[in-house]
């Protein structure tokens, strides 16, 4: 038979635009050995690292490998034999059947995934995927789990923080040695090192020691991490599996850009540190919860290989949202999930792929929105399909069955099937192993009485949906099974319909019911219905729609107000602008929606005046930054000087200065270029340098030369900004620079992957 059903077409299965000709398929490695334990003796001195490693292995006769990049080997022995082959990245050596003992002495420079920030007297490992191979002989792949022990010598007053239990601190005069023991098997990439001057704080929760390491001088910011206790209690209780280790440390580091869930010892970016004023808009809680959730999903059970990385990242992303539900309430949770949907959909404009994909050049490419956000959305759909109780029971079973082991998606599927008694092959095939997602449109037809029409795009998914059907006298929730692409539901009368009011299924819903009904839907008690109506109303420009959106600006939930503001921005009429200008919203997150909506009114003097007047009284850093960005996008030159004055203001993560740089880039001019160029190299802070670098891209050809230097900067975020900026220049001269990034073996995989994908979009821009 040669017939291929529509759903099995290649695009449905592997997606669109993801696989590149540089990609290869990847499978887990087979090693002849199990590594039972690894002990490392390390001395960190300036930019140098002196190391000695003892590994004990149980092997079949054959050839084993270990990774270690740019090591200078001083001594190597396996069972007394000194024979090995090393190519600067991988050691290959013969092993005997039975127990094998390996010893290696080496030196390495601090580079790649182990960074030194001299001005902060800090050294730290910074994350997946190649974390360990720059500083310890280890394996770059996650498959193998082992126990590790670290003896780390550092110069006083530095401290060395790592995984597990601190056995001993030994005074060696000018030096001090920290002895850390991680007695639970874990993948090598979960081994960490942080060296710096820290202030340490401790507390206990349910027998677990919580430790906080803040950079010296930042002790007052301890309260930024105070959700840790609550998150710890929540995850232990929700999963039914108590936190598996005795200690949980969080180390705040200047070298970090996000978080990294090393086993028992998470590294957190300094960006979490913020003052009370920033706290109205910014919170570290999501990052704290995400990294802590990884201790169960990632560290206790660990993905077997990078293609299954959603088992770490999709889970940590969803469990963060579940903590939000417990900690901040149902509406915050639903809006968090809705935001994840929007974030994922942005990426689908570039490509779609199955969550589990074996195609990549660097594993870092898989750490995208399909893995994080789509992974979380799929888990949410699964939880709703099974019910919370069965879902939790399935999670507990999965964790207990696989504790201390490596897993793939089939292990998870089987745990959920065992507990639910359901066959979940179809669910996993559609949502995890295939690309795409359901797209659903709701519209109304009249056939004497109203008929609700639900229609899916191609391909259609089997869906079980809740519809809230509201008439003048009644409101009912009706369960609808969509087994075909189109379903019609005739009704005696209808005021409005709301599809999936509790956001239980993973689907994009386009609300195309008539304007009158959308206006009625704005009064629904569920925030999802109000958000959908706000989105639907952006297609209308008459007074009724604008007034209804105006009422939503005063909504009791800030997320609804935000969405209403965005819709008014899309309408773009003077009446919509009047509505935006007549509301003074007290919640800064909602106010930010108005600030953002103003950017849609290009060259509109009234919009600019409104932004300026809001700016003059605004206290919140983030709203201020949004207003400044909008002034840049509105693009009226005479406001430039006022915008530039805000460059003097300090703010959390320098969001205000960064916004000024973006706006100045929008305004153009040689003077602005010179100013931004100077800040790219000598900005007041890391975020200023990143932002300035990014917006140099707006200046075309002339920015390419400085960007060719910035693309080699010591700060990873400046380098990735430079990659983005190079593409924005649309210059032919940018291509060879991007190619040099792709070829650089020691560049971060995420930055190389970004450069690779961007060379394709640069090619497209230039072909136009
Ligand atoms: Zn993560």
UniProtKB/TrEMBL annotation:
Keywords: Aminopeptidase, Hydrolase, Metal-binding, Metalloprotease, Protease, Zinc. GO terms for molecular function: metalloaminopeptidase activity; peptide binding; zinc ion binding. One of its GO terms (biological process) is proteolysis. Residues 49-190 form the Aminopeptidase N-like N-terminal domain. CDD domains: M1_APN_like. InterPro entries: Aminopeptidase_N-like_N, Aminopeptidase_N-like_N_sf, ARM-like, ARM-type_fold, PBS_lyase_HEAT, Peptidase_M1, Peptidase_M1_aminopeptidases, Peptidase_M1_dom. Residues 223-431 form the Peptidase M1 membrane alanine aminopeptidase domain. GO terms for cellular component: cytoplasm; extracellular space; membrane. The keyword Transcription regulation does not apply. The keyword Hydrolase applies. Its cofactor is Zn(2+). Belongs to the peptidase M1 family. This is Peptidase M1. It comes from Metallosphaera prunae.
């Amino acid at each position: 038979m040669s017939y291929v059903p529509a759903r099995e077409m290649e695009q449905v299965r592997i997606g669109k635009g993801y696989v590149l000709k540089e990609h290869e398929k990847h499978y887990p490695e087979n090693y002849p050995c199990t590594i039972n334990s690894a002990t490392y003796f390390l001395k960190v001195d300036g930019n140098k690292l002196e190391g000695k490693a003892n590994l004990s292995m149980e092997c079949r006769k054959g050839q084993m490998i270990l990774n270690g990049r740019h090591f200078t080997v001083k001594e190597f022995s396996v069972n007394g034999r000194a024979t090995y082959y090393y190519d600067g990245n991988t050691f290959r050596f013969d092993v005997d059947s039975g127990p094998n003992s390996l010893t290696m002495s080496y030196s390495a420079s601090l580079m790649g995934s182990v960074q030194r920030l001299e001005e902060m007297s800090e050294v730290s490992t910074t994350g997946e995927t190649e974390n360990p191979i720059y500083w310890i002989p280890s394996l770059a792949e996650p498959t193998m789990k082992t126990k590790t022990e670290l003896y780390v010598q550092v110069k006083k007053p530095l401290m060395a923080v790592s995984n597990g239990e601190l056995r001993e601190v030994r005074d060696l005069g000018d030096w001090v040695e920290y002895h850390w023991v991680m007695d639970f098997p874990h993948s090598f990439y979960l081994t960490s090192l942080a060296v710096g001057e820290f202030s340490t704080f401790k507390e206990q929760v349910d027998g677990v020691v919580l430790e906080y390491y803040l950079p010296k001088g930042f002790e007052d910011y301890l309260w930024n991490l105070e959700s840790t206790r609550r998150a710890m209690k929540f995850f232990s209780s929700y999963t039914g599996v108590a936190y598996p280790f005795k200690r949980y440390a969080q180390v705040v580091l200047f070298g970090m850009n996000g978080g990294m869930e090393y086993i028992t010892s998470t590294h957190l970016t300094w960006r979490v540190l913020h003052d009370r004023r920033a706290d109205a808009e910014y919170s570290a809680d999501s990052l704290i919860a995400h990294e802590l959730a990884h201790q169960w999903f990632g560290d206790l059970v660990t993905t077997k290989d990078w293609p299954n990385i959603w088992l770490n990242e999709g889970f940590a992303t969803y469990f963060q949202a579940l903590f939000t539900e417990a900690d901040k309430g149902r509406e915050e949770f639903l809006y968090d999930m809705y935001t994840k949907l929007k974030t994922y959909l942005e990426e689908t404009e570039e490509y779609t792929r199955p969550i589990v994909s074996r195609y990549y050049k660097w594993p870092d490419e898989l750490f995208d929105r399909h893995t994080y956000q789509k992974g979380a959305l799929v888990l949410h759909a699964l939880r709703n399909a099974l019910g919370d109780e069965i879902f939790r029971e399935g999670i507990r079973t999965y964790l207990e069955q696989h504790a201390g082991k490596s897993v793939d998606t089939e292990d998870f599927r089987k745990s959920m099937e065992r507990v639910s008694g359901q066959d979940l092959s179809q669910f996993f095939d559609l949502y995890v192993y295939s690309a795409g997602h359901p797209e659903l449109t709701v519209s109304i037809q009249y056939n004497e009485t109203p008929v609700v029409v639900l229609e899916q795009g191609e391909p259609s998914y089997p869906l079980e949906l809740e519809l809230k059907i509201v008439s003048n006298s009644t409101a009912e929730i009706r369960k609808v099974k969509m087994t075909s692409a189109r379903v019609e539901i005739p009704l005696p009368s209808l005021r409005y319909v709301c599809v999936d009011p509790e956001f239980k299924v993973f689907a994009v819903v386009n609300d195309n019911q008539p304007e009158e009904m959308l206006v009625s839907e704005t009064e629904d008690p569920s925030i999802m219905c109000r958000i959908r109506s706000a989105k639907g109303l952006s297609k209308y420009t008459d007074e009724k729609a604008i007034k209804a959106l105006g009422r939503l600006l005063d909504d009791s939930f800030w997320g609804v107000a935000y969405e209403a503001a965005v819709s008014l921005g899309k309408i773009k009429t003077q009446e919509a602008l009047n509505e935006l200008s007549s509301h003074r919203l007290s919640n800064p997150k909602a106010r930010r929606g108005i600030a953002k909506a103003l950017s849609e009114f290009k060259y509109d003097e009234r919009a600019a005046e409104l932004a300026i007047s809001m700016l003059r009284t605004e206290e919140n850093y983030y709203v201020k930054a949004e207003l400044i960005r909008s002034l840049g996008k509105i693009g009226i030159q005479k406001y430039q000087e006022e915008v530039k004055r805000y460059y003097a203001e300090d703010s959390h993560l320098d969001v205000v200065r960064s916004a000024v740089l973006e706006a100045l880039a929008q305004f153009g001019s040689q003077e602005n270029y010179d100013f931004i160029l100077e800040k790219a190299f000598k900005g007041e802070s890391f975020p200023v340098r990143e932002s300035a670098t990014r917006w140099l891209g707006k200046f075309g050809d002339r920015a390419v030369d400085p960007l060719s230097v910035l693309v080699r900067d010591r700060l990873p975020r400046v380098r990735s900004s430079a990659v983005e900026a190079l593409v924005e220049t649309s210059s032919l001269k940018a291509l060879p620079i991007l190619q040099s990034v792709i070829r650089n073996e020691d560049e971060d995989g995420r930055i190389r992957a970004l450069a690779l994908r961007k060379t394709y979009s640069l090619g497209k821009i230039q072909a136009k």
